[in-house]
């Protein structure tokens, strides 16, 4: 184990005991008491045998009392200790899980969510909180088992120094165990990607939205069989590694057991020669078998520590990533005065290039900007860059002349409002689903006002319990139509009173034309008010050209490039790609 991991385990040890120091101390005391009583049992047995041989009745009685006390202490302390240990492990697991989720959510951009390595590691980490927690308590267990071992060896060496060699024979089971467990750990790590895929396939069959497509296509059987196949594959690989680890362990134990048999032969000889008592032989038998148990405990605990030590590397890297200060310190401006300027901006997702190429455009403060283009042109990607979810690979985005990466990401996001085509269907109460748009708004009137701005009041009034209606059937609530969900998403986007940038990425794709028309009329008024008060820019991504006629600026994207920009009339008059697409769509409606 590297110094870094020890460092981290020490960190985690502090975390585990945080707020529960006394329980942690109690566990350690109990474990020490168990280790001491194991040796006492051996001693009482020797005492019992020797006093019986010498006919010392009082001593026999005292040895029996000591033995009973030691056994009682082992049983009682064992029970209390294991309960306390479980309590600490579970408590720590909850704490750690909360931290992992909070750290992942704190990362300022989204590119880590496109990285399978990151996803595998964080999934492994979330599945391993028990290992981490158990690994920590295992550190004390290893220490205490080592103390117990030393005590037993000291007593054995007291009978004959050669018996102390049993300690050396405990090394092969340790090494064999380590080799086997390394295989198990590697198998688990290799299987993590497969188990994520298996989980995903499983969700496609058990969740209502994807399940309807799977059912229509008749693919549900194929999907569940594929999921089961993946699960079996991952399980077999782990089972194989476990089997091999078992073989290694057996080999290690075989070495130790031969040593124990040899130790018994030595002590029998000593008894025959009269240099050791029968009690000594009983002590060797008792301690030798207990030593076996102690070594076993130490091996299990060392296994836990090794597993925890490995996963802690991921824990540390996630923690460091979440704590790394963002270079952006400046707060977002109170109002936009000039606007947002993209200078030679290029971008590609992980391992890709050319999703956006050399964009140069100025979005004036207070304007309404429409972005159009064919599927895959890069429209949503532009929205993600403007919201700071991803950073340009080249060029810069400037907010009133300040590069976006110099702004504090939280402060910039607090001044954004957004509604997306694939809006999240929050399965919570209606008022909560809307309030998520701005959790800082404490005024109870803010939710109905936002719902009204999004033209969704009628929808809410028709629900059985109005704003208190539970949404989504997964939790016994009501389901909405696609367009109704989108209206709630729009209401969420209306929660912030003074956004600097209102991002609408095909927010009305699921709405009927009448609803869309009404909504855009309302939004035009809202945008105009916001533009007057703080220079808000409204950026609308759409495939419906009829909705962009009134925009101050239309940007036409084609395979990541801006091929045209200007007002609707200018672009029509130019007779280029925009005019072609506009006329094509208008013809379809005639
Ligand atoms: N998270 C991602 N990781 C990798 N590639 C992505 C990701 N998101 C989008 N892309 C790719 O980037 C390109 C642009 O996608 P984008 O969603 O920006 O297009 P769009 O113009 O909004 O398309 P549409 O009109 O279909 O919504 C596409 O080729 C897409 O495959």
From TrEMBL:
Domain ABC transporter: 340-584
Major localization class: membrane
Subcellular location: Cell membrane
Residues spanning the membrane: 24-44, 56-77, 130-156, 162-181, 250-272
PROSITE patterns given in the database record: ABC_TM1F, ABC_TRANSPORTER_2
Membrane topology reported for the UniProt record: Multi-pass membrane protein
A Pfam family this chain is assigned to: ABC_tran
Claim: Transmembrane is one of the keywords in the record: yes
Keywords: ATP-binding, Membrane, Nucleotide-binding, Transmembrane, Transmembrane helix
Residues in ABC transmembrane type-1 domain copies: 131-307
InterPro entries attached to this UniProt entry: AAA+_ATPase, ABC1_TM_dom, ABC1_TM_sf, ABC_transporter-like_ATP-bd, P-loop_NTPase, Type_1_exporter
Name the UniProt record assigns to this protein: ABC transporter permease
Organism: Phytohabitans aurantiacus
Taxonomic lineage of the native organism: Bacteria, Bacillati, Actinomycetota, Actinomycetes, Micromonosporales
């Amino acid at each position: 184990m590297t110094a870094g991991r020890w460092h981290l385990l020490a960190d985690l040890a502090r975390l585990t005991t945080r707020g529960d120091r006394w329980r942690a101390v109690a566990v350690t005391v109990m474990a020490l008491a168990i280790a001491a009583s194991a040796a006492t049992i051996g001693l009482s047995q020797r005492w019992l045998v020797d006093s019986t041989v010498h006919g010392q009745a009082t001593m026999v009685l005292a040895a029996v009392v000591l033995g009973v006390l030691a056994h009682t202490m082992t049983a009682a302390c064992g029970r209390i200790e294991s309960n306390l240990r479980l309590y600490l492990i579970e408590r720590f697991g909850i704490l750690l899980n909360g931290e992992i989720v909070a750290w992942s959510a704190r990362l300022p951009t989204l590119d880590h969510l496109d990285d399978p390595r990151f996803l595998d590691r964080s999934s492994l980490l979330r599945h391993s909180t028990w290992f981490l927690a158990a690994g920590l308590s295992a550190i004390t267990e290893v220490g205490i088992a080592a103390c117990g071992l030393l005590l037993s060896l000291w007593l054995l060496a007291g009978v004959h120094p050669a018996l102390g060699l049993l300690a050396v024979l405990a090394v092969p089971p340790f090494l064999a165990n380590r080799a086997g467990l390394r295989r198990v750990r590697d198998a688990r790590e290799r299987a993590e990607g497969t188990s994520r895929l298996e989980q995903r396939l499983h969700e496609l069959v058990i969740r209502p939205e994807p399940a309807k497509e799977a059912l229509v296509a008749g693919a549900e059987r194929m999907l569940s069989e594929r999921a089961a196949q993946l699960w079996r594959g991952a399980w077999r690989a782990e089972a194989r590694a476990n089997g091999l680890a078992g073989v290694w362990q057996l080999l290690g134990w075989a070495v130790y057991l031969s040593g124990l048999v040899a130790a018994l032969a030595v002590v029998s000889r000593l008894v025959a020669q009269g240099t050791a008592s029968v009690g000594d032989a009983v002590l060797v038998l008792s301690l030798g078998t207990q030593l076996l148990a102690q070594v076993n405990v130490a091996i299990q605990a060392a296994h836990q520590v090794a597993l925890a030590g490995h996963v802690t590397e991921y824990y540390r890297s996630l923690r460091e990533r979440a704590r790394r200060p963002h270079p952006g310190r400046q707060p977002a401006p109170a109002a936009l005065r000039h606007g947002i300027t993209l200078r030679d901006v290029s971008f590609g997702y992980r391992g890709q290039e050319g999703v956006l190429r050399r964009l140069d455009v100025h979005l004036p403060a207070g304007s309404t900007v429409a972005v159009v283009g064919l599927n895959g042109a890069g429209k949503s990607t532009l929205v993600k860059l403007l919201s700071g979810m991803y950073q340009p690979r080249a060029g810069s985005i400037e907010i009133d002349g300040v590069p976006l990466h110099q702004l504090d990401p939280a402060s910039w996001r607090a001044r954004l409002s957004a509604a997306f085509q694939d809006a999240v269907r929050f399965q919570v109460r209606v008022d909560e689903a809307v309030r998520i748009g701005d959790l800082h708004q404490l005024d109870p009137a803010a939710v109905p006002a936002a719902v009204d701005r999004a033209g969704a009041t009628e929808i809410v009034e028709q629900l059985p319990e109005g704003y208190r209606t539970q949404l989504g059937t997964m939790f016994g609530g009501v389901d909405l139509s696609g367009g109704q969900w989108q209206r709630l998403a729009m209401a969420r986007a209306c929660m912030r009173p003074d956004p600097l940038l209102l991002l609408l990425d095909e927010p009305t794709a699921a709405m009927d034309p009448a609803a869309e028309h009404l909504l855009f009329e309302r939004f035009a008024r809202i945008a105009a008010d916001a533009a007057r008060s703080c220079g808000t820019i409204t950026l609308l991504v759409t495939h419906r050209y009829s909705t962009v006629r009134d925009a101050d600026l239309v940007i036409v994207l084609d395979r990541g490039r801006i091929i045209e920009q200007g007002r609707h009339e200018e672009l029509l008059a130019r007779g280029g790609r925009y005019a072609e697409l506009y006329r094509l769509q208008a013809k379809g409606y005639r």
